[in-house]
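Extended Data, panel c. Modelled sequence:
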Amino acid sequence: MIQNIEPHVYRNEYVPEPPKEDSVILYYEGRKILVKLEDQEISFLTFKEAAVCYPDIYEDYTYLFSIDGQGYYLTDGIDPADFPEFELKDNQYFREARPKYRQFAAVTGWQLYRWYQSRKFCGHCGQPMVHDDKERMMRCPDCGMMEFPKICPAVIIAVTHGNKILMSKYAGREYKKYALLAGFNETGESIEETVRREVMEEVGLKVKNLRYYKSQPWSFTDTLLMGFFCELDGEDGITLDTDELAMAEWFEREQMPVEAEDLSLTNEMMMAFKHGKM
């Protein structure tokens, strides 16, 4: 999965120390990030490279995280045209970008970039927010409101029925491949209740014997995904929620239209069932 970048070591402690020359700049414009592409591998701008055009680049930065001891930072005020060897790539490119640890850095940084962009002003009194000195938090100096990074709990659900698994396709989304049922946790609801509710809402089925599989951070949607396998409880007739799904269909294990990739929890769960591991 995208977060499995071993032997590289990701550290997310908030230690806003000044950047070094080899520290990495993650520069975003909306859905796009500035990268250099060489031999099908991506790299990012460093502070040393940026300082050639922007000598004061070391004075305005936001610390993100480190990988293998190398710091990653957000900066503003860069014109990509000043770095002709680099280009802006859409975030969907990072479903396949390599090396994997930089793919993970790009997507994780994009989640934090969007959070910082949307927390410039206090949601309670409207005053400008400031960075906290000790933790990753935006604080209102006027009313004391505190904001922490947005992380939304959600479930990935593999509904099985003997040798069959329920696969679906999303309605109205960029992603067009087969997936499993999924949905966000609601207020006052346990994760197990989320599983049952989402299956009933999306395909009109009851489920039993819920089994937790594993979790995954999914920065594309600010989400912490929790995967569950469960069994059909009752009739297998599908009542499709066409606002959420374009289709849903039962597939025999041996006929599942899916191939392995190393990005998503959804794919890992489908492949686990396809190969008889679940």
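The chain has a mean pLDDT of 95. This feature is highlighted in the accompanying rendering.
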